[in-house]
Design a protein that fits this description.
The chain is an all-alpha fold. The chain has 15 helices and two strands.
Length: 291
């Protein structure tokens, strides 16, 4: 308990002085904006998200505004944010918020989890950061800090919602305002100081309390997550080329134009079939289009 108190008090004070100025941290930022930002931030760098988020909220400032448009417009606006299925899920979440919650992003974790595309992290992040409720929030950065500072390991083990939430709950201050600040602080530390490849221990406010540092930085001996295959030449690249072509027109792209995008017929056909199955593309009499 004493170690947890030292970590929380130190990180909250550090965060108050060092937090990056990000849109979703500013006073008055809406719960809808927080939800949109969390969808966009999944495996996408902050520098790419900020300008796109501002464009998105200018166009669709409420769930109702997005729900009123075809899902294909969300896919078109997603552009280079990666994993375009998130655009479909966000559109579906907007529709669900309008239909089930009168257009207001729900506050309860269970209600948030029931929205399309919302998982453990996003539900608790919206409840904690948008509404100020006390919930443990766990992302990749937080898992890394806990693994190093609390467990003395260089890397976290495989993700486990049950284990990870219990570990974060043990560190979380009881008072909701402090809990919200600590969630943000430990996440920020992992993002800018306690990074995966080059941790800046000399700049870390909890370096003296870090068990990994105290133990002499022992190498990680647990199971590592699989390395993602190269993008160049992959089905993901072909899918991206097809979506880019469809985003560039308001109508359908002829099948012959799609065929010209990639020389390997089998790979192109596989990529298009995947896009159709995911609902990101629809087939029309004139070719292919966004939904």
């Amino acid at each position: 308990m004493q170690h947890a108190t030292v970590l929380s008090d130190t990180l909250i004070a550090w965060f108050a002085e060092n937090a990056r100025d990000l849109p979703w941290r500013r006073p008055g930022f809406s719960a809808w904006g927080t939800l949109v930002s969390e969808f966009m931030l999944q495996q996408t760098p902050v520098v790419r998200v900020v300008p796109r988020l501002e464009e998105w909220l200018d166009r669709w400032p409420t769930p109702a505004a997005l729900a009123a448009e075809p899902a294909g417009e969300a896919v078109r606006a997603w552009q280079s944010l990666g994993y375009p299925r998130r655009a479909l899920w966000l559109h579906a979440a907007a529709v669900a918020i309008v239909e089930r919650h009168a257009g207001v992003v729900p506050r309860g974790v269970d209600d948030l989890l029931a929205l399309p595309g919302v998982g453990d992290y996003t539900a608790r992040a919206v409840a904690a950061f948008a509404y100020g409720d006390r919930h443990p929030v766990v992302d990749t950065n937080i898992r890394r800090v806990i693994a190093r500072a609390v467990e003395g390991q260089g890397e976290p083990g495989p993700p486990s919602a049950r284990i990870d939430l219990v570990a974060m709950e043990a560190l979380l201050p009881h008072e909701p305002v402090a809990a919200r600040a600590f969630n943000g602080a430990i996440m920020e530390l992992g993002a800018v100081v306690c990074t995966a490849r080059a941790p800046r221990c000399d700049a870390c406010p909890i370096a003296r309390a870090c068990l990994w540092r105290t133990a002499g930085y022992p190498p990680f001996e647990g199971r590592r997550k699989a390395v993602q295959k190269k993008y160049e030449g992959s089905d993901r690249q072909v899918r991206g080329l097809v979506l880019r072509a469809l985003r560039g027109t308001s109508g359908a792209v002829p099948a012959s134009d799609v065929a010209a995008l990639w020389a390997d017929d089998d790979q192109r056909a596989r990529a298009v079939a995947g896009l159709l199955a995911d609902g990101l593309v629809v087939e029309t009499g004139a070719g292919y289009a966004l939904p």
